[in-house]
Amino acid sequence: MSSGPQPSRSASPTLVGRASLLATVRSHLAAARPVLLTGPSGIGKSALLTALGTGGQLGERVLRIGGTQAERWLPWTATVDLLRHLLGAGADELPDGQRAAVDAILVRGRADRSPDPHGARLAVHGLLSRYVHGGPALLLVDDLDCVDAESAAVVAYAVRRLGSSGLGCVCAALPGTRPLHGGVEVPVPPLSPGRLAEMLAPLALPDRVANTVHADSGGNPFLALSLAGAATDRPVGDLRPLPLPPTLRAVIARRLEGLPGQVRGTLLAAALADAPTVDLLRRAGHEGAARDIAEASAAGLLVQGDGGIRFTPPAVAAVLAHTATAEQRARTHRALAVAVPHAAGRIRHQALAAPDLTQGRSLATAARIALGSGARSLAARMFLLAADRTPAEAGTERFEWFAAAAEAGAAESLPEIVHQAAEAVLSANAHSSQRVRVRLALADLSSQALARMDEVLAGALEDAEGDAALTAQVRLRLAWARMVGGDLPGSRSEAVAAADLARSAADRSTEALALTVQALTDRLTARPAEAQRALTAALDPPAPVPDGLLPLSPRFYAARFAFFDDRLAESRTELLRMLSRVERGQGDELVLVLRCLAEVCARMGRCRDALYYAHRAGRVARECGTSPGPVWYTSAVAELAGGSLSRAAAFAKRGVRASEQEYDAIHIGRCLHVLGQVQLRQGDPTTAVRTLERVREGERRRGLMAPWCCAGTVTSPWAWPVWAALRKPPR
To answer: Are residues 650 and 680 located together in one domain of the fold?
Structure first.
């Protein structure tokens, strides 16, 4: 709660990502301005106070007090802590009235006396004045918003009069608290993804898990450490949602209990909605939604961004639903049924308000409508609800809807739904086609980690035996897995087999996707004529692209090949058209299109656009938990084109590490190539050559004859001449 009165001379503890914030606070203290650190619970305000108190950079002695929610109504509590530090600073020399006030606060002498507030203020002011006469002092007040009113008045009185006499003051409180007189508020922001990864580095989490921890915690250090602790033993390929540790569940429950009933009601509506916004909550009858959401944000329970509301961690929504009564949930669903704009959403909330096992088919019909309109998240949840509302004896129909939920969930990168649906199908006596579909959904969910999904794809191939159409879909994923893993001949072989099987089963969609993968392998192995024939065959006649498989579609790779060939305006135009289609969702497709737009803009010299698209792709990738390696590669390209060389190097190094974890040979080479260019521009050609040598060796192992890893970067005009010159044998 407090520190002793002796000056601190120890080194400041290392706080990741807070150096500039500490410097800002110290500059205000040097100018005799009191500082108020504000931010939600768990953001690190107390840690900052500790760092300030042990840094000793201004040579000050430290006094620390604080408040608690349980003691905020007990008068003079914090003043007692402060007086215990100051009693040696001439308390016996105080005038009688002030000494009587001190005795009353400390319950000394006559126990029936109440402290005189004015006498108490004068006494503490006098003691602090004597204390700072011996050298500068720093008063740290933690949880100012929970300090009792009497003590808060005493602190404000003393700081207002002694601020220019050597008494610095830093307080910490939740947002909405007013600074002391003449003071300045300094908000404590969330940690960035890179800084949070640095903080979590000792836990050795896979980068994809660390990225998910950042999204689920909103950059809040306390939440991040709590979630990361539950994921320390998780292998790279485990894409299940992070579990909620019991201790964190208890913390969330306490924070919710501390909120007014009106705020909890608003949060329950947000928890039960598919895509909550403040506007939706207002339409559902919560007029003070903006104020309620702000209060919940201050408590560290959610974050707002792009108009939406995201619970931190997402399991807060489950805690809210679990602690509400059945009547509260039903009433909230009825209100949401009136407020949501989507017809399928209204049906979902009506069904949840009135449980009925006969609703399965109508819910599935509404889910198909939602899927057709691009609302894949809503569709996945409705298919799951349809399966739940279908009697067990209607097994085939029930498993069909589980499979549909898994497919829609994979396209939208919703691991909780995909794993729940897959477990229901694979643990029961479901039809082999349904088993194949959920296994493929699990594979699609893996993104660039597909090379690690051998067991899942082997099971899918076994279940698909004898069915040409299903086997073609499995072999299509195997072709891409071989591609990602660096086996180009194996990838082409699987793609050719998939195309032949799909053609025999009259499955034009899968055939077109397989021909696209074949075209890509032909291009990478320096067979441009064959690549063009395969791509032309994939494009004509046109075929619909299954949800979530835009990254393998002929239309996408036609735009990508235009980029490789420097037909940049054509590529950008086609990608912008695709963006208008995929930006209604939040899955891998959206990340891919944003990434490619960033790379095209970087090549065109539209550096601001490149940085914008790269930043947006990174945010979506964190929120949907997709592979971070490709996004960090794109961020490195954008930074190299128009940002910071140091940031470009950091993104490239992180991209190499993440891609190695997922066996993604494609982006290992790409990230190394960007890193080599950065090192050249930083004036380190020797290190750059070693880095670029790794790229070339990787290309040789993969049989890559038309290097595509360089096609997405802004190649330095001197990069390859320098490399060649440095590789000449010495005379």
So the answer is: yes
Q: Are 402 and 436 spatial neighbours (Cβ–Cβ below 8 Å)?
A: no
| 263 vs 417: CA distance, rounded Å | 28
Burial of 724 (C-beta count, 10 Å sphere; 0-12/13-18/19+): exposed
Residue 98 belongs to domain spanning: 19-187
C-alpha atoms less than 13 angstroms from C-alpha of 381 in its C-beta half-sphere = 16
For residue 609, give the amino acid letter. D
Distance in angstroms (rounded) separating the CA atoms of residues 379 and 64? 54
Q: What is the pLDDT of residue 716?
A: 47
Q: Is the pLDDT of residue 22 over 80?
A: yes
In this prediction, what percent of the chain has a pLDDT beyond 70? 91
CA nearest to 299, candidates 274, 287, 316? 316
What is the spatial distance between Cα 342 and Cα 322, in angstroms, rounded to a whole number?
26
- Residues 688-712: tens digit of each pLDDT: 999 999 998 888 887 666 554 444 4
Same domain as 229, residue 179: no
Total tally of structural domains belonging to the chain: 3
Output the domain CATH number for residue 91: 3.40.50
In a shared domain, residues 201 and 81: no
Alpha-carbon distance 17 to 43, whole Å?
12
Q: Which residues contact 697 (CB under 8 A, 6 or more apart)?
A: none
| CA separation for the pair 214, 608 (Å, rounded) | 25
Burial of 634 (0-12, 13-18, 19+ CB in 10 A): buried
Residue 577 shares a structural domain with residue 713: yes
Regarding whether 608 and 588 lie in a shared domain, the answer is yes
Q: How far are the Cα atoms of 3, 14, 20, 56, 477 from residue 11, in angstroms, in the given order? A: 16, 9, 17, 8, 54
What is the average per-residue pLDDT within 62-69? Answer: 91
> Domain for residue 227, yes or no?
yes
In whole angstroms, give the CA distance from residue 169 to residue 611. Answer: 40
Q: How far apart are CA 261 and CA 274, in angstroms?
A: 22
Report CA-CA distances (Å) from 280 to 289, 327, 341, 369. Answer: 9, 21, 9, 21
Residue 248: name the closest of 310, 173, 175, 319 by CA. 319
| CA atoms of 313 and 79, how far apart (whole Å) | 36
Q: State how far the Cα of 533 lies from the Cα of 499, in Å rounded to an integer.
A: 14
Beta bridge partners of 173: 38
Residues 114, 199, single domain; the answer is: no
| Tens-digit pLDDT profile for residues 573-602 | 999 999 998 888 788 899 999 999 999 999
Which of 187, 206, 230 is the endpoint of a domain?
187
In a domain, 279, yes or no: no
What are the pLDDT digits (tens) for 530-581?
999 999 999 999 999 998 898 889 999 999 999 999 999 999 999 999 999 8
Q: pLDDT band for 90, please (50, 70, 90 cuts).
A: low
Mean pLDDT of 130-153: 92
The band of 203, judged by pLDDT with boundaries at 50, 70 and 90, is: confident
Does a structural domain hold residue 390? no
- Across the chain, mean pLDDT equals 88
Going by C-alpha positions, the residue among 112, 129, 143 that lies closest to residue 40 is 143
Q: Are 27 and 167 in a shared domain?
A: yes
By DSSP bridging, strand 302-305 and strand 308-311 are antiparallel
Distance CA 547, CA 550 (A): 7
Distance CA 565, CA 559 (A): 10
209 and 170 fall within a common domain: no
Q: Are 659 and 671 in contact (CB under 8 A)?
A: yes
In a domain, 303, yes or no: no
What span, in angstroms and rounded, lies between the C-alpha atoms of 662 and 209? Answer: 12
- Regarding pTM above 0.85, the answer is no
The answer to whether 239 and 588 have CB atoms below 8 angstroms apart is no
CATH number of the domain that residue 688 is part of: 1.25.40.10
